[in-house]
Amino acid sequence: MRLSRWQMFGPSWNPLEAFQSEMNRLFDRWGGESAFPALNVWEENDQLHVEAEVPGLALKDLEIYVTGGNTLTLKGERKFSVPEKSVWHRQERGQGRFVRALTLPYPVDAEKVDARLENGVLSLTLTKHESARPRKIPVKAE
């Protein structure tokens, strides 16, 4: 738990500064520099699970790599098919090529990766590499 000192007249005292701070946080998350695709990562037993939101993408549009034992890379391209003479009124979904690299908390076995795409969600199951699993050390008595 992080402790911080409360300041009565600090930066959050001014409501406009607090609003600006919240807007900056929002744009950092959803703005032009936001990470695509959005990911959920969790560990269960000896497996790491990754879910990526990739609506509108087909398997042929995705590339998945495990490099260095603990780096997961997702590459792809999201294409739009819009008629030539159309006029945009709003464009919030990104398009074009993307690369998302994630450092995993431990090495995984690249030969034991299961990838599935269903309803716009890419689900990956990565098995912890043998070298990253805990080993019981026998104790010898003299």
Characterization of the model:
The chain has a domain of 83 residues: Immunoglobulin-like (Sandwich). The relative contact order is 0.18. It has 142 residues and is mainly beta. It has a 4-stranded antiparallel β-sheet with strand order 1-2-7-6, with no helix packed on it. Strands 3-4-5 form a 3-stranded antiparallel β-sheet, with no helix packed on it. The protein contains 1 helix and 7 strands; from the N terminus they run αβββββββ. About 4% of the residues have low confidence. Strand 3 and strand 4 form a beta hairpin. It is 11% helix and 38% strand.
Give a short overview.
With 142 residues, the chain is mostly beta strands.
Show the helix and strand layout:
Blueprint (H helix, E strand, L loop, with lengths): L14 H16 L8 E6 L2 E7 L8 E6 L3 E8 L17 E8 L4 E11 L2 E8 L14
Antiparallel strand pairs: 1-2, 2-7, 3-4, 4-5, 6-7
Low-confidence stretches: 4-8
* Largest sheet: number of strands, sense, barrel closure: 4 strands, antiparallel
Strand order of the largest sheet: 1-2-7-6
Compute the number of strand runs. Answer: 7
Q: Provide a count of the helices.
A: 1
At the fold tier of CATH, the topology name of the domain at 35-81 and 96-131 is Immunoglobulin-like
Mean pLDDT: 81
What order do the helices and strands follow? HEEEEEEE
Helix and strand content put the structural class at: mainly beta
CATH architecture of the domain at 35-81 and 96-131: Sandwich
Radius of gyration based on Cα positions: 22 Å
Distance between the termini: 44 Å
